[in-house]
User: Which sequence fits this backbone?
């Protein structure tokens, strides 16, 4: 089969190709990049977004896992100094290996829904890019931006919003893809906070607390802090922590704001 010959999407890679040209242009417009910018596109596939970015930005880096699609992209952009095709899994690739200035990097992608959360947290590992514009499952976007106290609010909400600002930009109908997915989609923008509000060590402590809290999300904070094997603080310490941070030990985790989680993680040390 020719590298340029279309072939069916691979279910094993979670491929749904964006075929609506208007949506493609709308995503690139949301990215807001120009001739001085460097862009990383995750999972370019058949080049739906690529064709609107190549020649528009200073440098375009395409990271594609699929053998056939990576080969086709490499052939199409062969000889272009402003386009680099990297045949790799983005989860195995660090931003500073793709860019000399990762903090100024714009990231865009129509990514597989089955690995959206790992990709988001991988992109939010240090060094962080300037901004991330992603196509995600609509209900996952709802979980990230969920208000405190709702059933959608959880570890994902806290994990992202303690290090970045997030906004839902617009929905994308199922008919914009081939094959047509069984879920609704939307575009979100994630902008990492600058300067970084927490040190790497503080972020690790926060992740440990948040993970433990939402593993036991139906239990009260008192029991989580006292009995969870990753925390195990004495009752007297738990009481003192709650008073210092200003949280109610009768509350469940979904009642704590991201800021309260940050303060509680710091106090646990």
Assistant:
């Amino acid at each position: 089969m020719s590298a340029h010959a279309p072939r069916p999407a691979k279910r094993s890679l979670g491929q749904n190709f964006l075929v609506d040209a208007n949506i493609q242009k709308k995503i690139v417009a949301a990215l807001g990049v120009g001739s001085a910018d460097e862009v990383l596109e995750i999972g370019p596939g058949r080049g739906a977004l690529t064709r609107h970015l190549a020649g528009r930005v200073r440098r375009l880096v395409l990271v594609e896992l699929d053998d056939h699609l990576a080969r086709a992209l490499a052939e199409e952009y062969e000889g272009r100094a402003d386009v680099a095709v990297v045949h790799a899994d983005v989860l195995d690739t660090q931003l500073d290996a793709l860019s000399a200035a990762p903090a100024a990097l714009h990231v865009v992608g129509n990514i597989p829904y089955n690995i959206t959360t790992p990709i988001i947290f991988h992109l939010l590992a240090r060094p962080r890019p300037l901004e991330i514009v992603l196509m995600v499952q609509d209900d996952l976007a709802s979980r990230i931006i969920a208000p405190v106290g709702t059933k959608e609010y959880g570890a994902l909400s806290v994990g992202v919003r303690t290090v970045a600002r997030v906004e839902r930009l617009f929905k994308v109908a199922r008919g914009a893809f081939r094959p047509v997915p069984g879920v609704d989609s939307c575009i979100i923008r994630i902008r990492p906070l600058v300067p970084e509000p927490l040190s790497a060590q503080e972020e690790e402590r926060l992740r440990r607390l948040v993970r433990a809290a939402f593993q036991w999300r139906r239990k009260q904070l008192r029991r989580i802090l006292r009995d969870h094997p990753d925390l195990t603080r004495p009752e007297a310490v738990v009481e003192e922590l709650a008073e210092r941070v200003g949280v109610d030990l009768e509350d469940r985790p979904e009642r704590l704001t991201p800021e309260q989680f940050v303060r509680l993680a710091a106090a646990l040390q």
